[in-house]
Amino acid sequence: NAGVTQTPKFQVLKTGQSMTLQCAQDMNHEYMSWYRQDPGMGLRLIHYSVGAGITDQGEVPNGYNVSRSTTEDFPLRLLSAAPSQTSVYFCASSYNTGVNNEQFFGPGTRLTVL
Amino acid sequence: GDSVTQMEGPVTLSEEAFLTINCTYTATGYPSLFWYVQYPGEGLQLLLKATKADDKGSNKGFEATYRKETTSFHLEKGSVQVSDSAVYFCALSDGGATNKLIFGTGTLLAVQP
């Protein structure tokens, strides 16, 4: 198993550009989520999905879109990048919801918006 | 709302020293508590967890006890190794529909030989 994979590892964008951060898992996990990690703030939940076709907003969803057309993939879209979206983005997955389902994290994407 | 506070780093120790990283939490319900570790260039990995008061989580020589009376979940290890150098995150979850983890800001541990 590759676990949770994310691409790209690094990305530099100009303000107003769009891009998609890719996340995939091969563990047949129903639950997937996106977090952003900012200095001095820990990780914050952006969007999450409890299964294919189902997504919902987390704590900081503004400026981001998601979709879940397959169980394996959960891409995060930035439609018009802003400097405030400079961050490290982590995708996570777990078999299901509930605290007994360990959440597995990808290696992260470091995004810089100029 | 719920929150997690952990000691700021960096924490620099010599090999075989005793480690404590403090973590306290604020929650309205009865959350589960976690420690995650992030090695350089990698994603977060679950280190240990505790799901109810007085539970002790342990893994790889690390321990943490869920103390409801002091709302704490301090991470300890009796003898650290250079390979323990990483960022450690304390987190809580109420197990609700969002499955959200609420993280502390992370503590960088550097162990010198």
Describe the structure.
The complex is a heterodimer of chains A (114) and B (113). Chain A has 114 residues and is mostly beta strands. Chain A is built from no helices and eleven strands. In chain A, a hairpin with a 2-residue loop joins strand 5 and strand 6. The radius of gyration of chain A is 13 Å and the shape is globular. The termini of chain A are far apart. The mean pLDDT of chain A is 93. In chain B, 0% of the residues lie in helices and 50% in strands. Chain B is built from no helices and twelve strands. Chain B is mainly beta. Chain B starts with a strand and ends with a strand. In chain B, a hairpin with a 5-residue loop joins strand 5 and strand 6. At the A-B interface, strand 4, strand 5, strand 9 and strand 10 of A face strand 6 and strand 11 of B.
Search tags:
heterodimer; A: 114 residues; mainly beta; four-stranded antiparallel sheet; globular; B: 113 residues; 12 strands; 0% helix
Short description:
With 114 residues, chain A is an all-beta fold.
Distance between the ends of chain B: 41 Å
Structural class estimated from helices and strands of chain A: mainly beta
Count of separate DSSP helical elements of chain B: 0
Query: What percent of residues of chain A are in strands?
Result: over 45%
Beta-strand residue fraction of chain B:
over 45%
Order of helices and strands of chain A: EEEEEEEEEEE
Principal-axis shape of chain A: globular
| Largest interface, C-beta within 8 A | A-B, 30 and 24 residues
Evaluate the radius of gyration of chain A.
13 Å
Q: What number is the mean pLDDT of chain A?
A: 93
Class from secondary-structure proportions of chain B: mainly beta
Oligomer: heterodimer
Write the layout of secondary structure elements.
The complex is a heterodimer of chains A (114) and B (113).
Chain A: E1 4-7, E2 10-13, E3 19-25, E4 31-38, E5 42-51, E6 54-57, E7 64-66, E8 76-78, E9 87-94, E10 104-105, E11 109-113
Parallel strand pairs in A: 2-11
Antiparallel strand pairs in A: 1-3, 3-8, 4-5, 4-9, 5-6, 7-8, 9-10, 9-11
Chain B: E1 3-6, E2 11-14, E3 19-21, E4 23-26, E5 32-38, E6 44-50, E7 56-59, E8 62-65, E9 75-77, E10 86-93, E11 102-103, E12 107-112
Parallel strand pairs in B: 2-12
Antiparallel strand pairs in B: 1-4, 3-9, 5-6, 5-10, 7-8, 8-9, 10-11, 10-12
